[in-house]
Amino acid sequence: MATEIHAVRRDTAASATGRPAMPGLLALAVLLLVLIAAPYVLYPVFVMKVLCFALFACAFNLLIGFAGLLSFGHAAFFGGAAYITAHTVKVWGLPPELGILLGTAFSATLGLAFGALAIRRQGIYFAMITLALSQMVFFMALQLKFTGGEDGIQAVPRGHLFGVIDLSQSMSMYYTVLAVFLFGFVVIWRTVHSPFGQVLKAIRENEPRAISLGYRTDHYKLMAFVLSAALAGLAGGTKAIVFQLATLTDVQWQMSGAVVLMTLLGGIGTLFGPVVGAALVVTLENYLAASNLPVPVVIGVIFVACVLLFRRGIVGEIAARFGEKRP
After folding, report:
1. What is the pLDDT of residues 226-254, one digit of tens each?
2. Where do the H-state alpha helices sit in the chain?
3. Among 71, 108, 150, 290, which residue's CB has the most CB atoms within a 10 Å radius?
4. Long-range contacts of range 16-20, CB-CB < 8 Å, 24 or more positions apart?
5. Model confidence over 59-88: pLDDT tens digits?
6. Is-contact 174 49, C-beta < 8 A?
7. Angle at the Cα of 190 (from 187 to 196), degrees rounded to 5?
């Protein structure tokens, strides 16, 4: 047993020093070039919305794709951070970067509380507990005075980043959002390729086996939950600055369902899958809204088709076709 433990730990330590595969680096470089050029071709606010939801989906994927934990309550972290950011920037007059940091810290704290309660359960029981706790946050957002009830918090000033960069300018706001997205994506990338990420994947594949090897799996799962909640909060706080409002839509259970849909469409357990899934869903919602087509029905049909034809998700099927192993 001791030899086996040392072998696994040696493997995880080796993976920490290993670098991402060349196809992954190439895909990241292409993605970066596309995102830098995107605001010159597309409406910047639309691309910023895609980036915020892409970061939200990546944070959710870190939990379900690499730790095997299905949460139905991630809207609480996304929307909760949006409310804290909007309130601190509008009412307290804090600069936007500090407001986003406070929103992220709030989500991390909320994630620690939620995780401590839910992590002892598995499967559907874990999912139901996270959903119930998320609904409590929704009703608090509806009842508390500072949230503005059904009106939400509106007209949030974008302000100046570090007191210098005027975020009321679309391009300044866009590249700030891009920097936030890249920061969150790199954090997830580095986490997945660290010894911590290797243990998470071991827990996902066979938790009793990981326990038998001496890992305290509850601690690893709780750390993954808090990190995922913090990154979801980072996305929510940034979205509140971009759209200058925080509403009940951000904390509703439908938002938790939407991020599940984005991750499934793109590919669970892949780094780029949630980005593709978020871009697909946001694009469909944006362009079908002007038509007479029922948007939820169209997205539902596409989701069913993808599940039947691409069971690993779009990026997952492409990776499998070219023989790339899951990270």
Report:
1. 999 999 999 999 999 999 999 999 998 88
2. 2-17, 22-37, 44-66, 74-90, 96-118, 123-143, 170-192, 195-205, 207-212, 217-243, 253-266, 273-288, 295-309, 314-321
3. 71
4. 16/193, 16/194, 16/195, 16/198, 18/193, 20/189, 20/193, 20/327
5. 999 998 888 888 888 999 999 999 999 999
6. no
7. 110
In this prediction, residues 103-126 reach a mean pLDDT of 90
CB contact at 8 A, 103 and 82: yes
Is 229 within 8 Å of 74 (Cβ atoms)? yes
Backbone angles phi, psi at 55, to 5 degrees: -65, -40
How far is the C-alpha of 32 from the C-alpha of 50, rounded, in Å? 14
Task: Say whether pLDDT at 96 is over 60.
Answer: yes
Distances (CA, A) of 68 to 10, 41, 206, 317: 23, 38, 10, 19
The dihedral through the CA atoms of 276, 279, 263, 111 has a sign that is positive
- DSSP H or E segment with residue 160: strand 160-161
C-alpha count within 13 angstroms, C-beta hemisphere, residue 101: 7
- The tokens for 318 are 């492409």
Helix (H) or strand (E) holding 165: strand 165-166
74 and 126 Cβ atoms separated by less than 8 Å: no
β-pairing verdict for 165-166 and 160-161: antiparallel
- Per DSSP, what are the bridge partners of residue 153? 246
Residues 123, 161: Cα–Cα separation, whole Å: 42
The rounded Cα 54 to chain-centroid distance in angstroms is: 7
5 with 214: CB under 8 angstroms? yes
